[in-house]
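Case study 2.
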Amino acid sequence: MRADRLVSLVLLLRQHGQLSAVTLARELEVSTRTVLRDIEALSAAGVPVYAERGRHGGFALLPGFQTELTGLNHDEALALVVAGSRRGAQVFGLGSALASAMLKVVDALPASYRSTAAGASQRLLIDPETDLLSRRLVTEESPDTTTAEVLRAVLAGHKLRIHYAATDQPAKWRTVDPIGVVTVREQGYLLATRSGEDRTYRLDRVLAAEELAEPAERPDRVDLDRAWQERSTRFRTGGDQVTVLARVNPIRREDLARTALAILAESTDEDGWLRLEVTFQDSRHAEWALWQLSTNAEALAPPWLRAALHTRATTLATRYAAQPVHKDC
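Prediction:
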């Protein structure tokens, strides 16, 4: 336990430069007396930690000090390699950076764990590009240069100009104050404000981006997870929502549940099918969701949805009713 704490202490000093004993004690959840004893232990072990006295003093490491990642155990070393899957890096346009970083991490591992990491990279494949049916699993990605520009503005705290193509609208330029970037199910989103109003943009719809020199108008600290949850809630409860009554084959219930905003009521008919009352973001969302379930679902209400699905089915049936016309080559 103490060895883990000593490693954490060194990493804190490497990341933050100089920290007081009080700050270190708070971060490590120990007493200041324990911190002082740990500092003495590090000095005795040859770690170049020194004290700066005075009102704004604290402890720091000599510049340029490097350390091996000796605090990692077997499972932690393995987790690092497994965590370095491509999906998040691809969404953020950091594929090459991830590969370079993983090489450095493996190189810094203790010799006893390098073989584990090398073996894991050969024996464990996380999220390949296609499934067993050769269907590509990679979502649309924005260009690396565009994503990199977005990330630079987010991290630097600068305003950002983006050329954004909203759904069914021509692309246009807009200036936003970036808050953070979120990736969900292989899809990246830029959280920002525009004229003081919250905005959420899909990264794959950002056609171009330009970091501006002007500072962004945003709080110094942000709880990105909470901000995402709040926007997600507003998205689910806003818009022109529609409620649909449908019969669904039980084997496809979860598929519908993942697509719908919410299931309001559920019962079972005599034939075993489920009768569900579900909500969707809008009419297009409802039509798309029911169509995906094919013959495993039936929309009972509202009438306009039954009519829309009937039109789709009729058009498709008509197309396949006659033999195809082959042109002579």
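The longest strand covers residues 172-184.
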